[in-house]
């Protein structure tokens, strides 16, 4: 097992470029299955979850060609539908939560699909009902085999329908959109997710010949077409990385420029960090974060304690709440972090408390942070990364802490962050990869 050894308390300096967006990649890559023509995609992040999906596409019969470091072409001309029944597919599909995203395109183009119950982060229940209810509304029939933990779906006659989603699920919306673009008639999706990643998918599909209107709103209208063609697409930078780097700069008193951030697509993210007292400037399409000895959390207008909560876009993304929580530990003031959308994402705070942070975990969804205003540094400890976002939050804490920290189970971090140790070393961080077994306790 690999681990990171980190010597903290060092000010960093320099420029860092965010990778392509992981959450966009899983949708965009699945969409290549909708056409037999060539689709070229650039700014693809070189991370495990994305590489596993590219490998799965290859196993399905897609011709995959790497054109550059972050650019691939895909040609889904000859798809092997028998692959669904293979043990290889069950093993690979079950180990990758993003594999659910191939169902919509395959239903649309071939009228059938199968998927093992997907894996992914251990952050509480993450329902797939939204996906399947949407497919059912379009006329698909699915059977869950509980013994094999496997879904079989038949969609030989997809028809457009009115669909009111029970939750504004990003992956659920994307999957239903991909199924609907080749269905007969008109599909209306209300309470649709409207994240920039979903907008990117819809714009790409329209370039391929789809007819989707309402992009950027929660009401999408899709007129089914009979065929889609090829296209070229460039993915957005990863907004979660951008937020992580803002937090890193504040915690370590570093001067960092985050390059090519597509600022207009970041929504409220810069403003939420400003509420924590962090200074940041937009410079063209870059974000400059100056070195700050102190930062103070805002209060509400009436003087009450600030609450930062996640919400569907254009609200604050749940993926950055753990970063905000860590950053608040070194701020002046107090904040209530309310994680509404997932139920176990705050369970890493015990590690921060061990490092010296003052946090009260109220329940699985809420934590109150009493900022220590950098009166003392967090102390380095050994810890294990429970999921991608908590892992990076602990990494940021370790980089700001006094002494040495060891983070085990870094495979979780690397599912979402490309070459993170190399990129941080370029800023001056003391971080090295070591082989180490996680502690048994």
Automatic annotation (TrEMBL):
**Which pathway is this protein assigned to?**
Cell wall biogenesis; peptidoglycan biosynthesis
Which residues are in the Enolpyruvate transferase domain?
A: 7-421
Q: Where are the active-site residues found? A: 121
Could you tell me what this protein is called? UDP-N-acetylglucosamine 1-carboxyvinyltransferase
Q: Name one Pfam family in it.
A: EPSP_synthase
Tell me which species this is from: Pedobacter rhizosphaerae
Family according to the record: Belongs to the EPSP synthase family. MurA subfamily.
Query: Principal place where this protein is found?
Result: cytoplasm
The EC category is transferase
Q: Which gene encodes it?
A: murA
